[in-house]
Design a protein that fits this description.
By secondary structure, the chain is mainly alpha-helical. 42% of the residues lie in helices and 5% in strands. It is built from 22 helices and 8 strands.
Length: 561
């Protein structure tokens, strides 16, 4: 703080708060430690006071709420008891004036927020309840996300807490949430829910009380420990009447109790909830960095849908390396098919470009055969942020590149009005039926990995699919699809299916390979090798090449000297 580096001070304060959570009660009573903890609290208070006072996500109230009393309190209590009708809760609920006041607020002045938040909650609630049950956490604590963020994955607080569960960076890192230039897993609904359940469980194990655990989730575990040490009590309501907790933390438990009461039976409180669709998906293993625009076309959906299913992605692409992408239900197999067909199993390569003076998004996009929006989305920027000197990540264009031009079959984009899916590829003619096997050799039967040796060709039987063959032989479906890009969902009887290890069929089988090849413009060493059934490494050795660079007009040997 003395160096006026608030970001660094905030990071250090967050880390200190998490590290001290495991300290023993005896250590916390040490005068020197007490002085350090007070110094930490002063820094945290100063950071909070100097933070921009924008609206916080969720329903966390920093101001003091005046409790209802008298006849209003009696009416609210009757309404709650009538709405409960024998309901049981796995989180303790106190029906005192603080809780009943928040029930009243949720059904009056904060009614609109509550209806919207519970509508979003319908999307994630089944997943959250399942994760909390698996982690041994009360399932009613799912409504904590109403208070924290209103069930919004994009929520960000002035204290730089992010996501549905509002993790600060250091705590998220401790509970396995990655944050870098490509992904922000605090925004991932599934991963952040798992982290929140484990954090809440740890807080409960250290405090022994669910009210103290959730208060520690809001204020930091050391804040509650300091209050308990100074007051000589571990009762939350006693702490809430003291000066040792901030007003937001004093409101936190009553807000949560009220959110559980109203959220469990919103129609009984007169709320009209329009539930959003459930969060359902399938997953696709994307082996390398790939544009979301390309993946959307492969899955027969749109980029906005992929972003909604994968809110942790910060750019318009998957991160470098392999990534498990969520796609709409029923789209995974088609996405794998199209990825395998697109480039014969190799993913398109991204390039870098530094914006020059006079460049515009349209001009740069045109240079790389892209749509301007695809270029902006890939870099998570707006047109106003497109400035000279900015280093851009350029996704591959949807058209064929020199590296993929010779590969077949390939995806062709349909130029129709609107966002249309790719045209289906025509089925290849079936291979001729296999010759009858000798009388003393049993024909192969689908159903087990021992049917053929590794690297064999399997002949499809009636009703076979690549997925069925992969399951029967315990193979990777993605690998099988990569080896058989021409295969359709239902194979014809007699179709040849290459298994891992099988030799690639030569395009020149049955014909003599010429001695030389004259390189044409746009050809690559790999493409020439595929054309003649020759490995690129052999081409390099026979022609004395140190790398893969070749040029138009160059004569290459296709056989050993």
């Amino acid at each position: 703080m003395e160096a006026e580096d608030e970001d660094a001070a905030e990071d250090r304060a967050d880390e200190a708060d998490v590290l001290t959570a495991d300290w023993s009660a005896e250590l916390l009573r040490n005068p020197e430690v007490q002085a350090l903890l007070q110094r930490l609290k002063d820094v945290q208070d100063q950071l909070l006071a100097e933070a921009p006072q924008d609206a916080e996500p969720g329903l966390k109230a920093p101001e003091e709420i005046v409790s209802i009393s008298g006849e209003e309190l009696r009416i609210e209590l009757e309404k709650v008891r009538d709405a409960e009708k024998g309901a049981t809760y796995d989180f303790p609920i106190d029906l005192n004036d603080k809780v009943l006041t928040w029930v009243s607020l949720f059904t009056t002045t904060k009614r609109g927020f509550m209806e919207n938040a519970l509508g979003r909650a319908a999307t994630y609630m089944p997943m959250v309840r399942q994760v909390f049950a698996e982690e041994g956490v009360p399932q009613d604590l799912a409504f904590l996300a109403v208070i924290e963020s209103g069930f919004r994955n994009e929520a960000k607080s002035r204290a730089k807490a992010v996501g549905m569960w509002q993790f600060i960076r250091s705590t998220g890192r401790i509970y396995g949430l990655t944050a870098n230039a490509w992904v922000e897993e605090r925004r991932d609904p599934v991963k952040s829910t798992r982290a929140a359940a484990r954090y809440l469980k740890r807080l409960y194990e250290s405090s022994g009380d669910w009210y103290l655990a959730v208060s520690g989730y809001n204020a930091g575990p050391m804040t509650l420990e300091r209050a308990a040490q100074n007051l000589g009590t571990r009762n939350f309501w006693d702490m809430a009447r003291s000066r040792w907790l901030r007003t937001e933390t004093k409101n936190y438990v009553p807000e949560l109790c009220a959110a559980i009461l109203v959220g469990r039976n919103p129609e009984r409180y007169g709320l009209r909830i329009v539930p959003l669709p459930p969060y359902t998906y399938e997953t696709v293993a994307v082996p390398s960095m790939t544009s979301l625009a390309v993946l959307a076309r492969c899955a027969g959906t749109d980029t906005a849908t992929l972003k909604a299913l994968n809110p942790e992605l910060l750019r318009g692409s998957t991160p470098p390396g392999s990534y498990t992408l969520r796609v709409p239900p029923g789209k995974a197999l088609e996405c794998l098919r199209q990825l395998a067909r697109m480039t014969g199993g190799k993913q398109p390569i991204f390039r870098h470009y530094t914006v020059r003076k006079g460049d515009t998004p349209a001009k740069v996009a045109r240079r790389f055969k892209l749509e301007p929006n695809d270029l902006l989305d890939a870099n998570d920027i707006t047109a106003k942020q497109f400035k000279a000197g900015k280093r851009l990540l350029v996704p591959p264009s949807s058209g064929p590149s020199p590296e993929t031009r010779d590969r077949a079959p390939r995806i062709e984009r349909v130029k129709l009005l609107g966002d249309q899916p790719l045209t289906p590829l025509p089925a290849l003619p079936a291979d001729p039926a296999p010759a009858p096997a000798p009388a003393n050799v049993a024909p192969p039967v689908a159903g087990g990995p021992a049917d053929e040796p590794a690297g064999a060709i399997y002949r499809a039987k009636p009703g076979d699919t690549l997925a069925k063959i992969a399951r029967a032989r315990q193979l990777s479906l993605g690998e099988l699809m990569r080896l058989n890009p021409e295969a359709v969902k239902v194979l014809r009887p007699g179709d040849a299916v290459r298994l891992p290890g099988a030799a690639a069929p030569s395009k020149t089988a049955g014909t003599a390979i010429p001695q030389r090849h004259v390189v044409r413009r746009g050809e690559t060493l790999a493409a020439i090798g595929r054309k003649y059934g020759v490995a690129p490494s052999d081409l390099r050795a026979w022609n004395g090449l140190k790398g893969d660079r070749i040029q138009a007009g160059q004569r290459l040997r296709l056989t050993p000297r």
